[in-house]
Design a protein that fits this description.
The protein is mainly alpha-helical. It contains seven helices and four strands. Strands 1-2 form a two-stranded antiparallel sheet. A two-stranded antiparallel sheet has the order 3-4. The longest helix has 24 residues, at 61-84.
Length: 202
C-alpha cells in the first residue's frame, strides 16, 4: 500500500489507499493488547477486546483512549506549528475544513503509532488504566476523571521517551521531536533542504 500511495494520481485515490491501510493496521491492533481475566463483573462491559476503529462517539474502551490520544497529539502538534510560525489550519494532504488543524494532522500521521497508539497499549498492558476506569452514556464510552488522569500520565511518559533523530543523530524526547519536525518542514519550504525528512523508526 505504501508503494501504491507513491503512485496515486489523485487525492481521492490516495484517500482510498489510506483507508485500506488503516483497516489493515487496526485489524491486527487487538493482537498487541494483553487481555486480562477481570473478576469484577461490573467492569466486563468495558473489557479491552478491540475489534475495529470507531469514533464520534467511540463505542468501546480502547477506541475511547485512541480518540483521546489522537486529540492530545493534535493539540501538541498545533502548538508546535504556532511555535514555528505556521498556520496549523492550512495543510497539504488534509483539505481545509472549519475547526480542523489540517497541517497539525498532516504532520502527526507518522507519530500516531509511535506516540498515541503506544500510549494506549502501555496504559492497557501495564494496567495503568483498567476496565473500571470507564463509563457509558448512550452509545458513547468515556474515561472517568480517575481514568483520564491515569491515561494522561501514560501519554506524558511516552512524550518524554528519548529517541535518536535520524537526521541529527542525537537523542531527543518525542515532545522536542515534534517541534524539530515542524522546523524541518519550514526549512524545506524555504528551500534550505531538498525534501522533508519524515521521522521513522527501525
Amino acid at each position: 500500500m505504501a508503494e501504491q500511495a507513491e503512485r496515486a494520481r489523485s487525492l481521492e485515490e490516495l484517500l482510498g489507499i489510506e483507508g485500506n491501510a488503516a483497516r489493515a493496521y487496526f485489524a491486527d491492533f487487538a493482537g498487541m493488547i494483553k487481555l486480562e481475566e477481570d473478576g469484577d463483573k461490573g467492569a466486563l462491559q468495558f473489557r479491552f477486546d478491540f475489534s475495529c476503529r470507531n469514533r464520534r462517539p467511540p463505542r468501546d474502551a480502547v477506541n475511547a483512549m485512541l480518540s483521546l490520544a489522537y486529540s492530545l497529539l493534535t493539540k501538541d502538534f498545533t502548538i508546535a506549528c504556532y511555535a514555528v510560525g505556521f498556520d496549523p489550519y492550512i495543510g497539504f494532504y488534509l483539505q481545509p475544513r472549519f475547526g480542523r488543524p489540517a497541517l497539525a494532522l498532516d504532520l502527526m500521521e507518522p507519530f500516531r503509532p509511535l506516540i498515541a497508539d503506544s500510549a494506549v497499549l502501555t496504559a492497557i498492558n501495564t494496567r495503568m488504566v483498567t476496565p473500571r476506569d470507564f463509563v457509558q452514556a448512550g452509545p458513547a464510552v468515556a474515561l472517568t476523571p480517575k481514568g483520564r488522569k491515569s491515561f494522561f500520565h501514560a501519554y506524558e511518559l511516552r512524550m518524554d521517551t528519548l529517541v535518536t533523530h535520524p537526521v541529527f543523530e542525537y537523542r531527543v524526547s518525542y515532545r522536542r521531536l515534534l517541534e524539530i519536525q515542524v522546523r524541518l518542514l519550514a526549512r524545506y519550504l524555504e528551500g534550505e533542504i531538498g525534501e522533508y525528512p519524515v521521522f521513522t523508526t527501525r
